[in-house]
Specification:
This protein has about 200 residues and is mainly α. It has a domain of about 120 residues. The chain contains four helices and no strands. Helix 1 packs antiparallel against helix 2. Keywords: Cell membrane, Membrane, Transmembrane, Transmembrane helix. It is a multi-pass membrane protein.
Length: about 200
């Protein structure tokens, strides 16, 4: 009797290798990029500090212009010694007094507004309107101050040739104070122009 041999002819199926869990990137374990938020906060803080510094410098400049304008006005207005030594006999000196009064009033209003805004933290007028007023106001007043000083200088120099006395000395002091006021407002106008150019006004 012959024996029948049964062989296992079923194909052998290989099991694919198990994928490593560590090889799959996990979005939850990824560290977000740092620096974006902190950089934005630092930029905002720097802009606040810059604006605060510019406000204080502008306040100091306008305060200086107010003091110099007031001294110039008082010195020239009191420059009366009779006859030809009287300021109101000369158009140039009357012009200097008029601009000194105008500059004193303008800078006094600006100083009051800025002190009020810094102390209360509230703006009295719209920021863009305020910057426009500051820029053009400082420029116009600076021009008037240098104009009045320039018109009074030749007259004073001609008087000094004939006689150098208390009248000409007082006139020179008033002109000098007016020029210092011009310098303060000229620098303040530059700051106002810078603020006007960088503010987003959103």
């Amino acid at each position: 009797m012959s024996s029948i041999v049964v062989s296992d002819s079923s194909p052998h199926v290989e099991t694919p290798p198990t994928a490593s869990v560590s090889a799959i990137p996990n979005a939850e374990t990824q560290t977000p990029a740092t620096g974006g938020t902190s950089g934005g906060v630092n930029g905002i803080m720097w802009r606040w500090k810059r604006d605060d510094m510019l406000k204080k410098v502008s306040l100091a400049l306008r305060g200086g212009a107010m003091v110099f304008s007031l001294i110039s006005f008082i010195a020239m207005a009191s420059n009366k010694y009779g006859d030809s030594k009287d300021f109101d006999r000369y158009n140039e000196y009357r012009y200097l007094v008029a601009i000194g009064i105008l500059s004193t009033l303008y800078t006094a209003v600006q100083v009051f507004r800025q002190i009020r805004e810094l102390s209360t933290g509230k703006l009295l007028i719209n920021p863009r309107s305020g910057d426009i007023i500051d820029f053009f106001g400082d420029q116009i007043m600076a021009y008037l101050l240098i104009s009045s000083s320039s018109s009074a200088i030749p007259l004073t120099n001609s008087m000094r040739i004939g006689a150098d006395n208390i009248f000409t000395d007082t006139s020179s002091a008033a002109i000098t104070m007016s020029f210092f006021a011009f310098l303060c407002l000229a620098v303040s106008a530059l700051i106002s122009g810078y603020k006007l150019s960088v503010q987003p006004y959103l």
